[in-house]
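Interim report, section 4.2 (structural modelling).
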Amino acid sequence: MPKKKQQLIKLNILYFLIFCTFLACFPWLKKNFGNNNSEINNGANVLNVVDQKTNSISSFFSQLTGYFYTKKYLQNKIQALESEVVDLKNAQEKFSTTQNIEPSNIVSAKKIFSDFTHLYETLVLDKGSSANIKVGDLVSVYENEVIGKVSEVSLNTSVVALFSKSNEKLEGLIAAEGELDTEDQFLPVENSSTSSTTSTSTLATTTKLGNGAKNQKSDTIIIDVYGYGGGDFTAKIPNSIIVATGTKVYLAQDESEALGEVVSIEKKDASFYQVLYIRGYYNPRQEATYFVKTK
Amino acid sequence: MKKTKKIILKVLLYIVTISLLIFCIFYDLALANMNFPVLTTIYFVIFMGVRLSRYLLR
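Predicted structure of the assembly:
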């Protein structure tokens, strides 16, 4: 074998050995000369990494690349702020429309506390009798989305009993289609003693039913709605009545106030009724502004 | 003249490869949050590959 080739092989082996030594020493080198493995998750850390001068090596590289990290972080921040601005604008528009309805009769209040131990059955608002709130006043979120009634009032606070309180029974109005019979336990609006009008301003459909008459048209019927806790309701209606998901359920005592929307319908072949699951407008996790309609 | 040109080119090649090696080692040490020198290993594999291919093709 020529001498030059032998030298080359020796050199290659030497390089390999040097690399192996480097690999073996790497953990120690990293410990002593690394940048302490600073994780770059948010802006503060980015700036810390740039400012960190643990040793000359890491500070040099951090200064070199810190600019790009900071730029990326700032771009993300700008995007987040822009989306926040859009959200705030939407909320402001919604709020302003709510404010324009009847400002004199409506008192806006914030939630102090909600009773989470019993599936959110009550909540405490930061306005009381000093703001002209009385027992029995309706409490709503946004426009015509009612959630409960004032049950107790003190000077600066008031307790709201939610309609969605578990097993709480109340009467609701719903637009339904199908073969209606007045002999059913579910009375049409005209025959109901609790309802003051036959047609509502919010619902375009009207009931024109005589006693014992049957109707195929779209109607507004009164149903018994039971609270389910956590802002939800359930209702049982006969199978012959067709209700679509997304239909709004209104409060029978005040037809302009919506209780919630039908989110799902459970039908069983053996039973004569179907169960409506209604999602109310109360969200326990949302820090919303509540509106009390004073009388 | 030809010999000096060759020497200059060789020196330049050495400078480039060594600075690249230093960069890889420093990058692995200071910036990469890994317990294994990935960049240096890649460099070494390419470096040895070039050397061995030259040796084998001769």
